Amino acid sequence: MSDPRRRRALVASGALFLVGPVLPLALAATERLLGRTGSYPTPEPLPEDPFVEVVVPAYLEESTVGATVEVLTNALEKSAVRHLVHVVASDEGTAASAAAAGKVTRTGRGGKPAAVNAAVEQSTADVVVLTDANCRIEPPDWPVQMLRELQDTSLLSANKTEVGSDDVLFWRLESWLKLNASSDGGTLGVVGEFLAMRRRDYRPVPPATTSDDLWLAMDFDARGLRVSVSPTIVTCEDPAPRPEQWERRVRIAYGQLVMALPRLRALSRTPAGRNYLAHKMYRLTVGAAAFWTALAALVSVRPRVLVPVVGVPVGAAVAQYRGLLPVTTPVDPVAAVVALQAIPVAAASRIVRRSLRRDGKAVAGWRKVPR
Q1: pLDDT score of 366 more than 90
Q2: Can you state the angle between helices 288-301 and 3-18, rounded to 10 degrees?
Q3: Which of 220, 203, 83, 85 is CA-nearest to residue 156?
Q4: What pLDDT is stored for residue 146 in this prediction?
Q5: Alpha helices (H) in 138-233, listed in sequence order
Q6: What is the pLDDT of residues 163-200, one digit of tens each?
Q7: pTM of the model
Q8: In whole angstroms, how far apart are CA 252 and each of 165, 210, 211?
Q9: Sheet harboring 127-131: ordered strands across?
Q10: What integer pLDDT is reported at residue 306 of this predicted model?
Q11: What are residue 55's DSSP bridge partners?
């Protein structure tokens, strides 16, 4: 390839990568001009004194679930909300540590969808909240905020934060894009750490679903029910060790790709679905491919002796994010942005490997690090 063609490839791929963060906003502006923001039916009003059940599916969370139950219970009691905190524990240690919960159900290791399905099937609550055993929900009066915001939406999620995480730039961008999408045609960018809905609207998640939160959002949207991210409620958790964080990111990307790619046509038919394609899917496919193409083009137009000037920092950023390079620098948040571009590559590789497996067996859950 000649130098002019390499430079054009560099400019084009660089532009495709940089347009990713603003593409959902451009799409939303275009849909507003075209009057395609969509309309959703007003949800059925909640009872005056709704009964709220908080479901906490937990596995190997012996050191975290007890404190989580206490914090959840205190928030619900101080908000004067009728409630039940229900822990669905997949191991004896977690079940014992959750003894202070209003209800503890001991199950086998069947995966999160099975645990949630069983809990909601037994529930008699008006509102069901799904959360994790290792996160905190803020502000303290979140039950009041949640009930108020559920008056206008059918599935309510929250913004996620990680205390002291290198992914700070990523989370800020996510929050900004999700809140903008919620104010327009809804969003599918929910997080499993907080999902609130009317119990009657819940439909069982298929077993072995990798991304159960995305499945729920897509299911609600496909039924014409509004999905939103709260402007006031956030979930907080401590960042996982880097190797565990890498595996978690790859698993999430894997789940999104295997669920969304076969449903591209259906997603393109709703405002929230189109926003998801412009936001999440673009970043996982076109955006990541453009980044690596731009990197390759940049290396090809430079003298070979300078190739390490580009390759070494990128390789170090990925190695650091994976926990293979135990160093800390002031530019770690920027390095994390670079490293995140390797996540879709790892997820795509996992898809290919699993498609070539001959046994075709589905695995319940994923490799879990005890907490």
Answers
A1: no
A2: 150
A3: 220
A4: 98
A5: 142-149, 168-183, 212-222
A6: 767 677 777 777 777 777 666 668 898 999 999 999 99
A7: 0.89
A8: 17, 8, 7
A9: 103-106, 82-89, 51-58, 127-131, 194-198, 155-162, 227-237, 136-138
A10: 67
A11: 86, 130
Residue in the structure block whose two tokens are 């009930």: 147
Break the chain into its structural domains and give their ranges.
1-36+242-370, 52-239
Model confidence pLDDT, tens digit, residues 48-72: 999 999 999 999 899 999 999 999 9
233: three-class secondary structure by DSSP: strand
DSSP conformation letters of 162-177 = ETT-TTHHHHHHHHHH
Secondary structure of residue 157 in the 3-state scheme: strand
Q: Across the strands, what pairs with 136?
A: 236
Quick one: 144 exposed, middle or buried, by C-beta within 10 A (0-12, 13-18, 19+)? middle
Q: What b/e readout covers 161-175, taking b as 16+ CB neighbours within 10 angstroms?
A: bbeebbbeebeebbb
Q: Do residues 162 and 235 lie in contact, with contact meaning Cβ atoms separated by under 8 Å?
A: no
How far is the C-alpha of 158 from the C-alpha of 175, rounded, in Å?
9
Q: What is the dihedral of CA 64, 65, 71, 72, to 10 degrees?
A: 140
Q: What is the pLDDT of residue 33?
A: 82
343-363 per-position pLDDT tens digit: 999 999 999 988 887 555 555
Type of residue at 179: L
**Three-class SS state of 155:** strand
Residue 364 predicted with pLDDT over 60: no
CATH no., domain 52-239: 3.90.550.60
147 alpha carbon, distance to own chain's centre: 22
Distance of CA 362 to the CA centre of its chain: 21
The DSSP result for 63-90, as a single string, is TTHHHHHHHHHHHHHHTT-EEEEEEEES
User: Is the pLDDT at 275 greater than 70, yes or no?
Assistant: yes
